[in-house]
Structure formats: C-alpha cells, structure tokens
Amino acid sequence: MAIASPNILKADTSQVQDDATRVKLDIIGGDYATDYINASFIKGYSGEEEYIATQGPKEETCADFWRMVYQHNVKLIVMVTQFEEQNKVKCHRYFPPLRENLVIADFVVRCTTELSFPIYTDRTLVIHKNGRKKSVKHFHFQEWPDFGCPENTHFMLQFCSTMRQHIEDDAGLTLVHCSAGVGRTGTLIAIDILLQHIKENKKIDIFNTVYQLRQQRTNMVQTELQYKYIYQCLLEALQDAAFIHPGKLSSPAQSPEPIYENMLGHSPYEKLVKVRERERERERGGHEGKIQFQNKLFYSVKPPRLQCCLLGF
C-alpha cells in the first residue's frame, strides 16, 4: 500500500515505509488510498507505541497530517526542521502565527500561545472540527541542520528533559518530524529512549536501539554523524547527576562512576591516550570483566574492535 501509485505523490519516494508499522487514516468515501500518510508508529522505552515518526507536511499532505493528529490523539508535536534550509523547502507551514487561524479541509487550527526560548519555541495549537476541539503542544527545535547535528549536547539534553516531562504529564502519542522523518527524527527518538534507560539504571545498547528503530521505520538515524551524536549526548547525561538517580543504585558495584572516573578532568589528548590504552587492553582480552560491566550499564556492541569509544569534549 505504501508504494501504491496514488501514495507516491504524498511521500518522499526514497523513504518507503513498512505496512506493518505505518499509521493508517480513516478511509474517506470508500477510497482506500485515503488511509495513507508517510508516518510510522514507533515503540518507546516501555515497549508500547509511544511516538509517530513522519515526514514534514507538504502542501498537499497538510490535511492528512491534521487528520492523523486528530484521529490518533497526538498530544505533542516535535518539529526538528526549519521550513526552509539552504534555499530548499523542507516543510510546508502547517500551523498559523500566534492568535491566527488556519483553515485546512475540515479543520480550523489556531495558535493560542507562543513562547520563545534560545533553542526552541513552545506553542499551543487548538484544532477545531465539527464543533469539537482538541489541544496539542508544539515544540519547534530550531538548531538542527539537515543531515547534521546540533552543536551543543547540553541544550539537547535540556530539550529532551522538557519534552519527556510533557510526555509523562499528558497521555497520548508524541509526533516527531523533520523533513523526511528519519534522520533527525530517529536521532531524537533514540536519545529520548536511551535517556530513560539511564534514569532507570538499565543497560544502554545504542546499536540495538537504533536497529530496532530501523525495523519500524526505514533509515531512522540517517548518518554516521547523527549516530555519533547519540553517544555524545549520553556521555554528557552520564556525567550529569541530574540524569542519574543515585537512590536506585543498590550497591557500589552498580555505580557508573568507575567507568568514567579516569576520564573526567583530563585534557582531550589525555582522554584519547587513555581510551587507546583501554582499547589495546580489550584486544588482548584482559579487559573482559570491565567490558561486561560496561555493557550492563552502557552499551553492548561487539566485537570490541568495532565498539565506539565515548569521549567528553
């Protein structure tokens, strides 16, 4: 169904999605093609469907976008693209300016509040249809270039914390989109899921997390740079006490500190030397016990020579 001819015009044809996870809309007038939108359900930390990952709306798909938001009880929209980047349209403007209305098919969308922060804008959008209305939050993260990553991991962690708080306070699906709905979208969702693992003091498996995302939507986390950025964000989170709950550590052996105690407070060069020494030890097989401990806490990508080493910058 995703590659049926009426649907090709609705989608980025390089990102054909699996029918098993695609979001389906209510059929209109007996036309089965009207159930299609380039969007996928994504499972969260709990294993339940928590997100919708989708491409940025095109002019011709705006009505379908709002049908999806309304039908599937979306409570938060997270936008991680600009409307235009490098003189190329990445996303059609699908919501109105503050205190204005936008009429799209059967919907009237009104922006009732707008708060600007250094890296994102927080809006409240109210959707009216047939005398009924629904409210949805809209977070627009504005410092994320296409195929790239934000320069600052600290701001990203702050944004993820704000996003997660809203998700937990207001039950409903969270819709995330960039332009194609895979690169930046997948990276943000991966970071959010893995931060929850940190807070619950669970094993962090970045490779498998990204792999599972790609099983649900093609090309989630699109570039090597984005994959590396996930590691950088999680390293900073582990160094920040605000992202760790010491009360949940049942014994000193579970503390994350031994992994990083020799890495903090050193120059980048000293960190590189220490990492290389540790890698040589792994290759000789003498670090197996420590690797096993790290895998329980942080990641489990094998073989050791292919594991990414985490550095603080």
Brief descriptors of the model:
single chain, 313 residues, Protein-Tyrosine Phosphatase, Chain A, 2 domains, nine-stranded mixed beta sheet, two-stranded antiparallel sheet, 9 helices, 11 strands, protein-tyrosine-phosphatase, Protein-Tyr_Phosphatase
Give the integer mean of the pLDDT values.
81
- CATH superfamily caption of the largest domain: Protein tyrosine phosphatase superfamily
Contiguous helical run count: 9
Cα radius of gyration in angstroms: 21 Å
What is the CATH topology of the largest domain?
Protein-Tyrosine Phosphatase, Chain A
Secondary-structure element order, as H and E?
HEEEHEEEEEEEHEHHHHHH
Order of strands across the widest beta sheet? 1-2-3-11-4-10-9-8-7
Helix coverage percent of residues?
25-40%
Total strands: the figure is 11
* CATH architecture group name of the largest domain: Alpha-Beta Complex
Spatial shape:
globular
Terminal residue distance = 46 Å
CATH class of the largest domain: Alpha Beta
Poorly predicted runs are 246-264, 286-306
Number of domains: 2
Family: Belongs to the protein-tyrosine phosphatase family.
EC number: 3.1.3.48
InterPro entries: Prot-tyrosine_phosphatase-like, Protein-Tyr_Phosphatase, PTP_cat, Tyr_Pase_AS, Tyr_Pase_cat, Tyr_Pase_dom
Keywords: Hydrolase, Protein phosphatase
